[in-house]
């Protein structure tokens, strides 16, 4: 019941944040932030939707397994674990890590001071800070069965390539980069940045796997939906 309560609270929290972000008054958006694709071009917002989806699925599965013991529950749990291991933890921790690394170096490269007018400090930390503690609590709250590492990384790599392609497509379409930092890089530096970012995502995937194994003392085993 503890995990069910936690999943309910996190699902409600992320639903609140998603709705709040969608209700932002676009008339107050600082100059230079283009409207193309709306919030769906930002990894921060996509991560909110991802976390909402994961904790929502977890809540439904908690309720399902509490009242009905059905063989399909094992398959559903395996697929939920893949969502957590391949996307929810790596993407959520990546958003926190990369945002604060760039912010502490030069906030204007990722989050201009003008953004403070529409996103107060508490909301900024909700988007870019407490995501990671919530994910760590999830690891310590219940075990997750990770897929074979080569399969998990392949899926993560595919998703990473998909988002990077989306960012490049927006640049080709609009003529401006989603993030100010990208516009200051040469083509070679841009390729290096994308490669390093992908490497960081892979490292965070392994971190989640190690923390899960250390906490629960279980070896990785192949899941049934890979």
From TrEMBL:
Task: Provide this UniProt record's keywords sorted from A to Z.
Answer: Membrane, Transmembrane, Transmembrane helix
As for membrane topology, the entry says:
Multi-pass membrane protein
The record's subcellular location field reads: Endomembrane system
Please give the InterPro entries that the UniProt record associates with this protein. Answer: ADTRP_AIG1 (IPR006838)
Protein family membership: Belongs to the AIG1 family.
Which reaction(s) does the protein catalyse, per the Swiss-Prot or TrEMBL entry? 9-hexadecanoyloxy-octadecanoate + H2O = 9-hydroxy-octadecanoate + hexadecanoate + H(+); 9-(9Z-octadecenoyloxy)-octadecanoate + H2O = 9-hydroxy-octadecanoate + (9Z)-octadecenoate + H(+); 9-(9Z-hexadecenoyloxy)-octadecanoate + H2O = (9Z)-hexadecenoate + 9-hydroxy-octadecanoate + H(+); 12-octadecanoyloxy-octadecanoate + H2O = 12-hydroxyoctadecanoate + octadecanoate + H(+)
Chief location bin: membrane
The membrane-spanning stretches of this chain are 7-24, 39-61, 82-102, 122-141, 153-179, 191-214
What's the name of the protein? Answer: Androgen dependent TFPI regulating protein
The record, for PANTHER family, names: ANDROGEN-DEPENDENT TFPI-REGULATING PROTEIN-LIKE, ANDROGEN-INDUCED PROTEIN 1-RELATED
Gene it is expressed from: ADTRP
List GO terms (cellular component aspect): endomembrane system; membrane
């Amino acid at each position: 019941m503890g995990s069910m309560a936690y999943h309910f609270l996190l699902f409600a929290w992320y639903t609140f944040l998603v709705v709040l972000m969608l209700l932002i008054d676009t008339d107050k958006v600082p100059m230079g932030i283009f409207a193309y694709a709306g919030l769906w071009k930002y990894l921060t917002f996509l991560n909110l939707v991802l976390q909402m989806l994961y904790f929502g699925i977890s809540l439904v599965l908690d309720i399902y397994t509490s009242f009905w013991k059905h063989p399909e529950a094992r398959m559903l749990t395996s697929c939920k674990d893949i969502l957590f291991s391949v996307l929810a933890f790596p993407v959520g921790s990546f958003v926190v890590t990369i945002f604060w690394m760039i912010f502490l170096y030069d906030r204007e490269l990722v989050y201009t001071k003008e953004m403070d007018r529409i996103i107060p400090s508490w909301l900024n930390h909700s988007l870019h800070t407490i995501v990671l503690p919530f994910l760590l609590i999830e690891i310590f709250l219940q075990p997750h069965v990770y897929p074979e590492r080569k399969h998990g990384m392949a899926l993560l790599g595919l998703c990473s390539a998909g988002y990077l392609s989306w960012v490049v497509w927006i640049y080709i379409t609009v003529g401006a980069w989603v993030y100010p930092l990208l516009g200051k890089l040469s083509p070679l530096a841009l390729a290096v940045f994308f490669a390093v970012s992908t490497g960081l995502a892979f490292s965070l995937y392994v971190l989640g796997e190690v923390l899960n194994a250390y906490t629960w003392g279980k070896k990785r085993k192949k899941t049934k939906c890979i």
